[in-house]
Structure to design on (360 residues):
C-alpha cells in the first residue's frame, strides 16, 4: 500500500487565489512569496445563460480569451517558479500542485436573474482549478511512477471532498485534456477540476437513463452494464480484483475506454486505500497502452464521472477517449456529431479492445 500524505500545504498567489501543494512522503513543500504584479481577481468573470431551446445552461467566460497560449518552455506558467516572479507555482519544486485557475470558466456567486427581455441568466458561480501532475515539463501522466500517480488520485479525492462541501456546488468534475490535437495550449502535464453549480447535461442524461432502468429492471444501470461487459469479454481490456477497463459496446470515439470499480461507489471519496492504490495502477496501465498504439503519444480526454448521495444511481467511472482513428487520421466532430449529437464511429469497439489487450 502506498504511503500518502493527505493534508496539502496551502499558500496564496499574489491576486488572492489558493494554491495547494501535495507531497510524496519525505518531501516538504517550500512555497515562496508570489511577487507578480497581478490585479485582484474579479468575482464576476463569467456568466451562465439558459438556452430555452435545449433546457441547458451555457457558460459565457470571455476573460478566457486572454489565457496563456502556447508559451515557450522557459516561460511555462506551470513549471516551478523559485523566484516568485513568473510561474503560477511559486516554489523551487513540487510533486503535485492544485491552484485556482487565473482564467476560470466559472467564478462568482449569486442567484438567477431575468434579463428583462425574456431570457434567463446567472453569475457563473463555481470553481475552476488547475492540477499539475508533476514539475517535469516534458513528462506525462503515463510517465509517473505508481506512488506519484497515487498522489494525483489523492489530490483529486481531496479536491472532490472539499469542493462538494462548498455551498452551491452540485458536481465536481476532474479531467485532463492531453495533446495539441485536443486543443491543449499548455504542454506541461496537467489537468483541471471544475465545481459546477448545476448538473452537466451528460450527467443529467445518464442519471435519467439510470432512473428509468431502476424502474424497469429494479437494478442499477451501470452495475448491469459492467456485468454484461465482463460476461461478454470481447471488449474487456484488462480486469483486476477491484477494477475493470473496457471499451463500451456503443463507443462513440475511435479509442474509448471506461474504467469501473468492481463494486458500486459514488465517487473517489468512497474508495478505500487499497482500491485507490489499484485504481492508480490500472489507470497508468491504460494510459501506457494508449501511448503504445502508434508511433507518437495518443491525444486523449480523461473524464472522471463522480456523483453524490443525492444521485443514488450514479456509479463512479472514468471515461477515456481519443479523436485519433488511425496512425495518420483524426476523427473530427463534424455536422452529425456537433449539430445533431449523433455520433458515427469509424471503428468497431471490439477491434479497439483487441488492439489494446495486445499492448501489454
Amino acid at each position: 500500500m502506498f504511503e500518502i500524505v493527505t493534508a496539502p500545504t496551502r499558500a496564496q498567489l499574489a491576486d488572492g487565489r489558493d494554491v495547494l501543494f501535495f507531497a510524496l512522503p519525505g518531501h516538504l513543500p517550500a512555497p515562496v512569496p508570489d511577487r507578480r504584479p497581478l490585479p485582484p481577481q474579479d468575482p464576476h468573470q463569467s456568466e451562465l445563460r439558459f438556452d430555452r431551446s435545449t433546457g441547458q445552461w451555457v457558460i459565457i467566460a470571455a476573460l478566457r480569451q486572454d489565457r496563456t497560449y502556447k508559451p515557450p518552455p522557459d516561460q511555462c506558467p506551470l513549471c516551478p517558479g523559485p523566484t516568485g516572479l513568473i510561474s503560477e507555482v511559486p516554489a523551487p519544486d513540487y510533486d503535485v500542485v492544485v491552484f485556482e485557475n487565473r482564467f476560470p470558466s466559472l467564478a462568482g456567486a449569486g442567484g438567477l436573474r431575468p434579463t428583462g427581455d425574456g431570457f434567463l441568466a446567472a453569475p457563473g458561480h463555481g470553481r475552476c482549478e488547475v492540477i499539475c501532475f508533476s514539475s517535469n515539463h516534458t513528462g506525462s501522466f503515463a510517465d509517473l511512477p505508481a506512488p506519484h500517480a497515487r498522489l494525483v488520485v489523492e489530490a483529486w479525492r481531496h479536491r472532490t471532498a472539499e469542493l462538494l462541501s462548498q455551498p452551491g456546488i452540485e458536481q465536481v468534475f476532474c479531467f485532463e485534456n492531453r495533446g495539441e490535437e485536443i486543443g491543449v495550449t499548455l504542454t506541461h502535464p496537467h489537468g483541471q477540476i471544475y465545481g459546477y453549480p448545476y448538473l452537466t447535461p451528460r450527467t443529467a442524461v445518464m442519471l435519467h437513463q439510470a432512473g428509468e432502468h431502476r424502474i424497469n429492471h429494479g437494478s442499477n444501470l451501470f452495475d448491469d452494464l459492467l456485468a454484461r461487459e465482463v460476461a461478454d469479454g470481447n471488449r474487456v481490456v484488462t480486469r483486476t480484483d477491484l477494477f475493470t477497463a473496457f471499451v463500451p459496446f456503443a463507443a462513440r470515439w475511435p479509442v474509448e475506454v471506461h474504467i469501473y470499480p468492481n463494486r458500486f461507489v459514488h465517487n473517489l471519496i468512497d474508495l478505500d486505500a487499497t482500491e485507490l492504490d489499484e485504481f492508480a495502477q490500472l489507470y497508468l496501465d491504460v494510459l501506457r497502452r494508449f501511448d503504445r498504439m502508434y508511433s507518437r503519444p495518443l491525444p486523449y480526454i480523461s473524464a472522471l464521472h463522480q456523483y453524490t448521495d443525492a444521485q443514488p444511481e450514479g456509479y463512479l467511472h472514468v471515461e477515456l477517449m481519443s479523436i485519433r482513428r488511425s496512425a495518420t487520421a483524426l476523427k473530427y466532430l463534424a455536422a452529425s456529431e456537433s449539430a445533431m449529437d449523433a455520433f458515427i464511429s469509424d471503428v468497431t469497439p471490439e477491434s479497439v479492445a483487441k488492439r489494446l489487450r495486445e499492448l501489454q
About this structure: The chain has two domains: 9-36+46-196, 203-358.
